[in-house]
Each structure stands twice: as C-alpha cells, then as structure tokens.
C-alpha cells in the first residue's frame, strides 16, 4: 500500500512556494518537505483541513492511494 502526496503539483498549479504554503498552513517548511517526500507517518486532520483551505481543494486532491501489489499494466498480482 502506498499513499501518494500531490502537494508539488498543486503548488505549481497555484503558483505558490513551499515557504508561502507552509506559512499559510501554519507548519514548518521542513514538515512540508517530510509530507512531499512521503516520509510522514501521519497527517493531523487539522493540518489536512488547513492545507485544503489554503489550496482550495479536497483531501483527495492532496492524497491518493495505490496498491503497490498491482502491476502498472493493471493485471492482477500473482
């Protein structure tokens, strides 16, 4: 299982820097980097809410899930 974070593309679409985003959300740029690099083990709902408000998007625009066991060609594992 792999949760993917799409902050980079959302920031580019909105012309927003990581620093400006971090300030608006209320967390450090280092913590944004941890999220972007997939090293975060959890995200607080309050942080997710703030990110959605700043980016004017839904949680599903920021996060997605992919089954790492499914081959990229769409065939079932096994």
From TrEMBL:
Gene3D superfamilies to which the protein is assigned, alphabetical: lambda repressor-like DNA-binding domains
Highest taxon above the source species: Bacteria
Record domain HTH cro/C1-type: where: 7-62
InterPro entries per the UniProt record, alphabetical: Cro/C1-type_HTH, Lambda_DNA-bd_dom_sf
Range of residues in the leader sequence: none
One Gene Ontology term of the molecular function aspect: DNA binding
CDD domains on file: HTH_XRE
Name of this chain's protein: Transcriptional regulator
Species assigned in the record: Microbacterium protaetiae
């Amino acid at each position: 299982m792999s949760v993917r974070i799409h902050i980079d593309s959302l920031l580019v679409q909105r012309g927003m820097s990581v620093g400006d985003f971090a300030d608006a959300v209320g967390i450090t740029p280092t913590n944004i980097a941890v999220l972007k690099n997939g090293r975060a083990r959890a995200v607080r709902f309050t942080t997710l809410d703030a990110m959605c408000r700043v980016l004017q998007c839904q949680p599903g625009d920021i996060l997605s899930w992919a089954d790492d066991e499914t081959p990229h060609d769409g065939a079932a594992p096994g």
